Amino acid sequence: MRVGRTFGVSMTRIERQEETGKLRLRPRKVLLAGLAVGVIFFFVSRGIPWFSSEIPDAAMGRPLFNGLPEQGGFIKAVGVHFLLALGYALIIAAFVYRLDPLPASITGGVIGLGLYGLNYLIFRFALASPAVSELPVAITHVAFGLALAGAYKAISVRRIIGQSTPPPPGV
Q1: pTM score
Q2: Which run of H or of E encompasses 58?
Q3: 100-145: per-residue pLDDT in tens?
Q4: Which residues have C-beta within 8 Å of that of residue 97, sequence separation ≥ 6?
Q5: CA–CA separation, 115 and 127 (whole Å)
Q6: Where do the domains of the chain lie?
Q7: Could you tell me the maximum CA-CA distance found in the chain, to the nearest angstrom?
Q8: Residue 50's CB: how many other CB atoms inside 10 A?
Q9: Cα–chain-centroid distance for residue 152?
């Protein structure tokens, strides 16, 4: 169903919703997407299930402790993970909110890779963290960027209230 004309081209409701979603960054939606994707990546702590352990012990794929966690280690992992998830969400959304969903997701993955590079430099050189297998950490960052960008684009579009969806053709 066509609802208006912009620059000589008529737009559907869905196209208009998508265009209004690109007008500004919605911080509450960014935080909601960051929390939602952060929950998933907390339980799949290394980005993909076959790299993850039974107990969530990593923040964005980076192990937080060696062996068994000390007293309060789980709480530390939760705090660090969700602070990183929300921070990463704000950074990624700042770059992707004006893009269409597919380019936004790809850009989110590239930014996730860039955040991995920054994470590596901080942990390896500034904090003198011991060497670990970096592949799961890199995959986690890229997958988080892809998922976060897609989730933000999905929930940042305002719903048109009071207008019903037209029936599919032939019904």
Answers
A1: 0.72
A2: strand 58-59
A3: 889 999 999 999 999 999 988 887 777 666 667 778 788 888 999 9
A4: 21, 22, 24, 25, 26, 104, 152, 156
A5: 16
A6: 25-155
A7: 65
A8: 7
A9: 7
Q: Are 52 and 41 in contact (CB under 8 A)?
A: no
Amino acid at 11: M
Tokens of 138: 């890199």
Structure tokens at 56: 């969530």
**Phi, psi angles (nearest 5°) of residue 112:** -60, -40
Q: Which helix (H) or strand (E) holds 113?
A: helix 101-121
**CA separation for the pair 56, 37 (Å, rounded):** 15
Closest of 107, 121, 116 to residue 140, by C-alpha = 116
Which residue in 34, 53, 35 sits closest to 43, CA to CA? 53
In whole angstroms, give the CA distance from residue 137 to residue 62.
6
Residue 21 has pLDDT above 80, yes or no: no
Measured distance CA(116)–CA(36) in Å, rounded: 20
What residues have CB less than 8 Å from 64, skipping those under 6 apart? Answer: 57, 58, 73, 76, 77, 80
